[in-house]
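Dear all,

This email documents one entry for the complex benchmark we are building for the journal club exercise. For each entry we list the sequence lines for every component of the assembly. Then comes the predicted three-dimensional structure of the complex as a token string, followed by one or two observations. Please use this as the template for your own entries, and keep the labels exactly as they appear.
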Amino acid sequence: MNQAKISISRLLCVISIMCCVFISASLSAKEWLIEDKKAYDSIINKVQAGDVIVLANGTYRDFEILFKGEGTKQKPITLKAETKGKVFLTGQSNLRLAGKYLVVSGLVFKDGYTPSSAVIAFRSNKETLAYHSRVTEVVIDNYNNPDKRESDYWVAIYGQHNRFDHNYLAGKRNKGVTVAVRLDSENSRENHHKIDHNYFGPRPIFGSNGGETLRIGTSHYSLSNSFTLVENNYFDRCDGEVEIISVKSGQNKILNNVFFESRGTLTLRHGNGNIIEENIFLGNGVDHTGGIRVINKDQVVRNNYIEGLTGYRFGSGFTVMNGVPNSKINRYHQVENALIENNSLINVQHIQLAAGSDAERSAVPIKSTMQNNLIYNDNGQQPFTLFDDVSGMAFKGNVANTVAHEKLASGISQESIVLKRAKNGLLYPTDAKLANKGATKDLSPIKKSATGPSWYKKVDSLVAFGSGKTIQVKAEDDALFNAVLAADSGDVLVLADGDFDVRKMIDINKTLTIKALNQGQAKVTFQRSTLFQISDGGSLTIDGLDFNGSNSPDSSGNSLVRSKKWGMVDNYRFVMRNSKVSALDINHSFHFFDSGSGAFADYIELSNNHFVNITGDLLRLNKEIEDLGIYNAEYVKLKHNTFDNVQGALVNLYRGGSDESTFGPHFEMTNNSVKNSSKGKRNKAASSLHLHGVQVTHIENNSFDDSAIVVIEHTVGEPKTAIKNNIFNKTPAPSITELYVKGSHTAEVLNNKQSL
Ligand code: CA
């Protein structure tokens, strides 16, 4: 390609298409330089085997690329960036491939979202698929539909013999699988696709079903074989939902992938004869990190290295499920002929067998073997839980450092095991006689740096509180408002002693910390119905401020903080410490914090605060009323606060429905003092805490004095609730009910003092 010629053509703007004949190779192969959509449309029907389409560097907005053609193995048709990483597809752009031997590389999708059902689809329509085609070194970065309930795939792979490799996919926040292998037509089955060396970057908690990172097949065609190879990929904090990978077809191979601090599991949900080999799971003790879940026939799980996983139940470090007798295709097929051998399970808190056993799932695992696995737990606790008869699983030659579960003792011998970290970063027993137990020493975990395009930085889009500059803010008119506007994400605003009477609502669309120079000496009042609104990109920490509602409008329904009223796509964090909130009482229903519908908090923490005289609710996290398993906050923590004369509910946290794809919400309340609260006639919850469908609840060392009842409603998911060492003075005892499961409640209620 003649660079001078290109610049001349650009300069003159006469033609935007160039066509050069390759000097060598093939006489017919052309290279087309494309500078806009129109030019692309004018040539795409002319490209022939061996041609190369070069997208000139720049930003293309609303460009729906249909890349079609018939290449050959020797002469593929290529669509590539002029310079890798310098071609941006924004707005409502997407890419479809249709034909044979097509190669795409070097493109970046960002600042927008696909108007169709996929950002990249290996088909143009139901009939015209892509075969022997490759997408490599492509980036899809935070390319999300702003309505997070709108579902799309980032990548939908159809056809056969396609490869998806060295791509970067991070920050999917709206509903829908990140990468889906579709088997919904004959020509997409037995596909032999290869998915390798991709970087699957952080996928935040989605807060309902539909947050899988990779799915191969669907239940409908799950008895078909897929022959998809998933190899050498890096899954970095893929937290969307309980399934990181959902295998729903047969004869796939999942080899040598790294799962780093990812919540959820690699689930063999449907389909038979899959091989899961030499994968590395590193949980580092992060909540809900899981490993492998086995369902169906003929699955092989061999030589995997699994360390530091905390997950339990269907999210355990290792799970073998019970099936449903004569299962429908979308339920649970019985585990049969599973071979589980030479896996290292190190500090894996939970290994669950015959999991999910109930009246429906009564078919126990059969004809299966678990052998030569290495099981090690620092805490000395054996990790197995058996939910049903596991005599259909043969246990042979396994070793553990702990006393084995009594029913498995014949197949798991207790040994004194000393582990040492090898050069590959993994732990192995030092004792040579254990050399054939657990995973092979030959494991070579794929490095993060060896995945994705080398030219695209793997930066974390989550900005930590306090990671930026410190900015002093004087107690003057509009100073706080203007300081927030001018700040960068990560900055800390330090408020001087004095009065801040805020005239306008402050929009928080970056990560900010607002703190008092001297605790309690920065006094904040506000004149609008809300002081702080958290919107997309926003997270807020407040420290040491004194808030007072006396200058707020004399109307009902004010709030001190709220998230955007409707439709956020970014998760947010909200923390308040060492602060005082008083006189939110100018009218009724003056709330402290009000979540919008569709908003999702990664965490909300209130610690060491004093709340007094509030006519509304403290935390309103009950906006997802459709009972679809969606909720407003993952972790809610209240520590060392006092609540005095709060007329509404302290916390209303609601997760309705029976979906089990998520891990939360989690609620923790420790060492708080609640006085004369939640008894207002407008408190619709008629309780101090109303926790519906919360999965983990821990209420300890609080005193409730002359306050309304604590109400806990268990739904699905075997929720864990502990209520311990609290004082309920002139306050009714907590009410705990099971709404779905028959029988008495499962909460642990211990050492609470009750007086009326
Ligand atoms: Ca799912």
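Observations: The domain at 258-445 is CATH 2.160.20.10 (Pectate Lyase C-like). The chain has a mean pLDDT of 95.
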